[in-house]
Amino acid sequence: MGSVPLQKTLRGLGKIEARARWLAAAKKALWPLIPADLQPHCDLANYRDGVLVLTASSPVWATRLRQSSPAIIHRAPGNIKRPVHRIEVRIVPPEAPRPSPPPREVSATAREHLRRCAALVGRDRSND
């Protein structure tokens, strides 16, 4: 098994970067077509072969986005300079905050060892 040449890897990364830049520009151009009350609840996930993939944070917002799809499909090609034949809406709920782990208890034995270590570290060792 040989390693992948650096040039090939960099070329691949360049394609990924170009795709990310295009999606960011497409989102910026597309966003005026999304109703203002929907914008905080949806995102542009992808574009491939005339299909815009949009995400919504809940089924309610997904339904509202689907209802807006005909107007978006009609006007999007002028904004993103590519044909749009269909919109797919996927539900991607916001990530729930993770609970912080409970505080860990230190046993009495461990506390005593830590106290002894701290005393040794703070002791003057010039006479040792």
Write the layout of secondary structure elements.
Layout: H1 6-30, E1 42-48, E2 51-56, H2 59-80, E3 86-91, H3 108-122
Helix pairs in contact: 1-2
Name a few traits of the molecule.
single chain, alpha+beta, 3 strands, three-stranded mixed sheet, 128 residues, elongated, 48% helix, 15% strand
The order of strands across the largest sheet is: 1-2-3
Radius of gyration: 28 Å
Shape: elongated
Strand tally is: 3
Low-pLDDT stretches: none
> What is the percentage of strand-forming residues?
5-15%
Distance, first to last CA: 57 Å
Mean pLDDT: 87
Main structural class: alpha+beta
- Percentage of helical residues? 40-55%
- State the order of secondary-structure elements, H for helix, E for strand: HEEHEH
Main sheet makeup: 3 strands, mixed
Task: Summarize the entry for a quick read.
With 128 residues, the chain is of the alpha+beta class. Helix content is 48%, strand content 15%. The mean pLDDT is 87.
Structural summary, described in words:
The protein has 128 residues and is of the alpha+beta class. Helix content is 48%, strand content 15%. The protein is built from 3 helices and 3 strands, in the order αββαβα. It has helices at 6-30, 59-80, 108-122, and strands at residues 42-48, 51-56, 86-91. A 3-stranded mixed beta sheet has the order 1-2-3. A hairpin with a 2-residue loop joins strand 1 and strand 2 (51-56). Helix 1 (6-30) crosses helix 2 (59-80).
